[in-house]
Amino acid sequence: MKSPMIAALATCALVLSACGAGGAAGQDEVNADGKVVLEVAMDAGLEQNAVDAFNERVAQFEKAHPDVDVRPREYTWTAATFTSQLAGGTIPDVFTVPFTDGRGLIERQQIADVSALVAKLPYAKSFNANVAKAGQATDGKQWAVPIAAYGQALHYNRTLFAQAGLDPDDPPSTWDEVRSAARQIAARTGQAGYAQMTTDNTGGWILATLDYARGGRLETVKGDRATATIDTPELADVLEQVRAMRWDDNSMGANFLYDWAGINQDFAAGRIGMYVSGGGNYGNLVTQNALKPRDYGVTVLPLTGDRDAGVLGGGTLAVVSPKTGEKTRAAAVEWIDFFYLGKLTDRHAAVLNAKTQAESGQPVGTPDLPVLDRATYDAQQKWIAEYVNVPVAQLKPYTSRMFDQPLVPEPARSTQDVYKLLDNVAQTVLTDQGADIPALLADAQSQAQALLDRG
Questions:
Q1: DSSP-assigned letter for residue 149
Q2: Rounded distance, CA 74 to CA 90, Å?
Q3: What angle do CA 154, 235, 441 make, to 5 degrees?
Q4: Do 245 and 339 lie in a common domain?
């Protein structure tokens, strides 16, 4: 039986938010051979060839770092489980979070301050400034490392397009065309012409995306004051089109409670003609949902032409648990450099990663937006050209224009909480034919402002 003192110390080590361990290092774990143990996040639900590819990368890292014992642990961020995982200390030493979580985790010291280690990386000053902000403290120090960035895109099933008499090489470029194509797909194939996420905060994420594409925003920030801007003509227009597609056109299928994993699965299975998600989602669709490459198409998000219209952008940060000791933190940043960023910045690492991925059947050359400068991105693409195995021609409606669209960051304040509010709005419009859209927006506006006022 543990003594009360030992139990109290154990509790402090686990309840990160209460102990504020982000600045001071914890204790290193060492194995029987004297190696520093480093637990690293591996996406949950990967198919075996993807697991094999991950383990091969682990072996490569350990060969280059013989004093480190890397132990993969399955982990995928979800809004519903992250807070309890964080408080319970059940997250790996190196894990990933969305851009929207970065500032809050830093302010609450729920992640380790590895900024001094990050500053020593040779490309530390080459991060895209807009991207890097998501992982910086108020003093500009880089506590969290941006490893992937995205702009939202319209994904579509080329096979369903062809079956519906639509041209897969000429996808919709306006929201009216999206509606028309969805109606035609539903009528001629019996599948959902268009579907939309609505749960686990993804409903708000997608409504924000569609709002941005029409020139709207969910909030404005002036100094320390954030003002909700949900009850607007732009967001009302979004919901009116969703309502029309659902109830007038009957083009959105029968599932109105999609989360990210669920909509990916149904899209990959050929049950959805179009949906909106991050532009680089092809890799997840292939490795986790067995997407048939010949079915896949992607294009840039339609914008209204309004001068404020833009593409919602975000991404993923690699962070380090505050429970880690100094040696573990050093190993963690070396892992982040090797696994996530080396393949973007170092020719040998880029080629080795691409070769390893290609040999294990993993996608190489997916259309991800760069977290570093354009020159670095272009060089990396040339290094890996011989290993690219994705349907490049089918990605061109997106890749040929993805750098031309204005990217707008996600809302900066109470992001996930506001998204959660909007989940309910999206679900109500899709499940209640008589939904009062003005009333829904007015209520969401009031609740969002209360959240913003609390900070």
A1: E
A2: 11
A3: 135
A4: no
